[in-house]
Design a protein that fits this description.
This protein is α+β, with helices and mostly antiparallel strands. The chain has one domain: Creatine Kinase, Chain A, domain 2. The protein is 43% helix and 8% strand. The protein contains 13 helices and six strands. It has a six-stranded antiparallel beta sheet with strand order 2-3-1-4-6-5. β2 and β3 form a beta hairpin. α3 runs antiparallel to α4, α5 packs antiparallel against α7 and α12 runs antiparallel to α13. The mean pLDDT is 92.
Length: 342
């Protein structure tokens, strides 16, 4: 039996509410499941994002030339929307480079481009190791200028930061070595700052929220410096960035990461999230927040809860869970999992 014989692919089962027997059966079927690259994800058209492909190479001129060739090809085929994929030096390592995308939307064309960029990096025998990240930006217009929804977003993040980190390691079994230097956890610090905001008798303004939560450097799990520069301006050119994902040359991993983070961000507009419940549950695990050494531990019940909160179909939930579980074990070694993608 395959996993979508057990649960319907298009259904929206509450996996966290299953009996222990059914959860066990689900996880056994999950072990043999493989994630496929989809033509598109059916994300809301309002969702915009950008990708940063980091890698190391001894022949940067060849990769740069290949990037230009792809840009010209896509331009001639009218497959680019006026902006280019940009090749540049990545300053965190001596042989590190990066290809950054223009503003993207969920489309058949976007995922073809991601696949070709991944193939370019692989075909030139570029290095992907524990120095390299796969940052993802999202347009702030997804949440907009509603302060309550931003507060819900931050509370949701704090509660599930440990799940987000393990998922974002992609096909690797643990975090990259520099994640604490360039993408340090924020949950504990954010929780304390959010509690300070709660001391007021009225909902704080957008400006007050971002002033209170602003971190003055690019070394944390999320960055909102483009938002801060814009004050209360929210548009697709002003982005916030998830910095914890490991790098990858697998387009399935990139697509699955985008799908997860897009739904995570968009979920604050669903009306399903109870901010008071998020606060209480975060307080219960306060001592565990931001302890990176514990973020590689598997917390299946929390992962199932998060899947039910942010996704509305079983396919998205199972793809998220498969990447989260990886080899269904933990390790201190930075290594790739046995492939869980097709």
């Amino acid at each position: 039996m395959e996993i979508f014989d057990f649960i319907g692919e298009k259904s929206n089962d509450m996996l966290s509410k299953m009996s222990e027997k059914d959860k066990h059966e689900l996880l056994e079927l999950l072990k043999i499941y493989r994630i496929s690259l989809r033509d598109r994800l059916a994300l809301d058209p309002n969702v915009t994002f950008g990708l940063e492909f980091e890698f190391g190479t001894d022949n940067p001129s060849k990769v740069e030339s290949g990037t230009k060739t792809l840009n010209y090809k896509w331009l001639m085929e009218k497959r680019l929307n006026g902006s280019w994929y940009d090749f540049k030096k990545e300053t965190s390592s001596t042989d590190g480079y990066e290809i950054s995308s223009p503003i993207l939307i969920d489309s058949i064309e976007t995922w073809k481009q991601v696949k070709e960029i991944c193939s370019l990096i692989e075909s030139n025998k570029c290095r992907i190791d524990e120095r390299d990240a796969g940052h993802i930006h999202f347009g702030t217009q997804i949440i907009g200028n509603n302060p309550d929804e931003w507060l819900t977003f931050f509370r949701l993040y704090c509660l599930y930061e440990n799940i987000i980190y393990r998922f974002s390691y992609g096909e690797f079994e643990k975090e990259r070595s520099f994640v604490s230097t360039y993408a340090a956890p924020l949950a504990k610090e954010y929780t304390h700052r959010l509690d300070k905001l709660d001391e007021g008798i009225i909902t704080p303004s957008i400006r007050k929220i971002f002033t209170t939560l602003a971190v003055p450097h690019k070394k944390c799990a999320m960055q909102f410096y483009k938002v801060s520069e814009g004050g209360t301006s929210f548009e697709k050119n002003r982005t916030f960035e998830f910095r914890m994902p490991n790098a990858s040359t697998n387009p399935v991993i990139w697509q699955n990461n985008v799908n997860f983070f897009a739904h995570f961000v968009s979920s604050v507009k669903s009306g399903k999230l109870d901010i008071e419940l998020l606060k209480r549950k975060t307080k219960e695990k306060l001592d565990e927040l931001s302890k990176l050494s514990r973020y590689n531990l598997i917390s299946i019940d929390e992962a199932l809860e998060l899947a039910d909160l942010i996704f509305d179909n079983n396919l998205d939930k199972i793809n998220f869970l498969r990447q989260y579980m990886k080899e269904f074990e933990t390790t201190d070694e930075f290594r790739k999992s046995e492939s869980f993608t097709k």
